[in-house]
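Protocol step 6 of 9: fold each sequence in the batch and record its structure tokens directly after the sequence line. For illustration, a two-sequence batch is reproduced in full.

Sequence one:
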Amino acid sequence: MEKKLLSELLKPLNVLDVKGEVDGVEICDLVCDSRRMTAGALFVAVRGVTVDSHKFIPDVVAAGAAAVVCEQLPEQLSADVAYIVVDNGSRSLAWLASAWYDYPSQSLDLVGVTGTNGKTTTATLLYEMAQLLGYKAGLISTVRNIVDTTVIHTEQTTPDPLTLNRLLRQMVDAGCKYAFMEVSSHACVQHRIDGLRFRGGVFTNLTRDHLDYHKTVENYIAAKKSFFDNLPSDAFALVNIDDKVGLVMVQNSRASKHTYSLRSMADFKGKIIESRLNGTTLELNGREIEVLFTGRFNAYNLTAVYGASLLLGFPEEDVAVKMSLLVPVAGRFQTLVSPRGYTAIVDYAHTPDALVNVLDTIRDVVGNRGKIITVVGAGGNRDKGKRPIMAKEAARRSDRLILTSDNPRFEDPEEILRDMEAGLDDSDRRHTLKITDRRDAIKAATCFAEPGDVVLVAGKGHEDYQEVRGVKHHFDDKEVILSLFDEEKQN
């Protein structure tokens, strides 16, 4: 990256005060992690959730920082360093990151997808649609980031502003015209997407999640809504009006407003004609299409994809043809058929609503012809209030329930299971087991299964690890199931 003038980088910021010389100063790098400081770089101090990096300002100055952006000046100032005081370090970092990478979002048709459930599927399928139509596109998601066809490992749903703008710049340099990204509620509140120009926004739905962070549902709604509040007037906002806060999302948005629905009159109307475990006959705006997805929740996702594709200007006839070629995202209702004739499904459902959606979908297809055996846990150091709710919903909709470990993080797995079990009554407990070891739990579920039954392994989906006491151990639900299938073949 070539050097940039500090005075140019600071133009989009709300600067409150400056100490030291700014004009003519060249910056060789932009850094928000003091451990990555290099001589001649600009350091941005941010008040994070767990760490306030203002305390590292003396360290970065000693390491040769050319300038520091901060909300509060340090006690001692160096004559060789420019100090720029701003109103909000997080917001300033996002705008500086955009400026550092020459505002890449302005060279892309960038679409953000937000909501509790369906973000990954909707964003990924929009990326697939663009690629199938012959356009170069990029993806930023929970499962993976993709620059055209190059897959890049991901750690967060929405990356930090530096990573985010670097990815967008790579997409521009690779010739991408479109980019699709998940927009998390955390990203909205923490200003990670500030400084980006969106061509459109999609709202999927809103149910209880992340209350460990947002504290109240109202705060959670406000976080999601802020994304639409900040869309420009030449962008589109596409919302699910079957969700009770769908229209709330866009009530203050300047973007052109569009709706999708399975139940109401809308700009883009979907309808399930026939549902199977391995696919659905779906009607979209009066046109029947065969898709490789199952469930009402996926019908919503596909209707959103159809609507957003047309709003981007993709030809309607071409979009309808390509809908049949879209394939499910890893860990989202992934269907695996056992040698013994039962079906195993791996799904990321980790909220009460998502679990209900998946289990209701399975029951709709299976009816009374087979049993549903559910394996589910809950993550540690996250919203504890949803644990008993998840267990209760799973017990009501399953013939047998096995509560197990998810990512316990720094909590005792047994304590998490006790929290979940608290949501069960005596009748629920009669068909519920607690097996803390996740592999043993999955194995038990497959042993109980008979031909025609469905084993749902929920909660982790695409994840290939279990996080215990700060250490990530390799664990992949799909791998475990396939290894159990191999054992079945040998017996």
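Sequence two, same batch, same settings:
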Amino acid sequence: MVALLVSTPLLAAELKWPNERIDSWHGFKRHQFTVDGCPAWVVEPVQARPGNPWSWCLEFPDAFTERCAATGLLTNGFYHVHIVVGNTFGSPAALKHFSAFYQDLQTHGLAQKSALIGLSRGGLYAYRWAAENPDKVSVIYGDAPVCDFKSWPGGKFKGKGSPSDWTELQRLYGFKSEEEALTYRGNPIDILQPLSQAHVALIHVVGDADDVVPTAENTDIIEDRYRRLGGEIRVIHKPGVGHHPHGLEDPTPVVQFIIDHAGHPKP
């Protein structure tokens, strides 16, 4: 009996954090609280799938929400979560906050593996945390994701770049010079092997006319390298579309891909 109680995930009704505030997010119950000094939140599905699967939007959780799978996953029994680390480009300090948040979610009974959502620069956040924690991730959904910071914000190829963000990124990563940043080998394009070995499934949605985060400098490289590593990846192209709008008018293909690869049955 004791073993059963320890191994059984908490029910949704039991979710509670110290000094939390309850509100509504797109019609679903949301818990707002603080973890590791950062604001964080968890949104509950009406009925959770067995095993309490969850999706995690690492940056821009309120951008193009209906188009980017989150509400579709909630409707299908996934929890949805976020922790606010600001414009930190997946820096080492940000990854530590992510890990603290993950550990907190584990104590509340959420599944061991998450489906990560990386929008735009959120691709840096998602891939870098996943590469350090491949056993904690089932799927990465990248939407026009930054996969090499030399492309954005660096602007070292054909993309527009962002000089102010490039300067801030170098500061947050602790690079002593631009040369050190340019030779860094911790970008998503460089750290795919742990993900392939852990059988993490990837799905990207990209605009073929994106001149902010050009597909050729980001997703195309991920796709080529991940296939060479034997990993599973699907890329959905939007002809003639730029960096915005993110997501799909009908995000069902992304929602279904995540459901199929998260390994949790229907309620």
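Proceed to step 7 once all outputs are recorded. Observation for sequence two: The CA atoms of residues 45 and 143 lie 23 Å apart.
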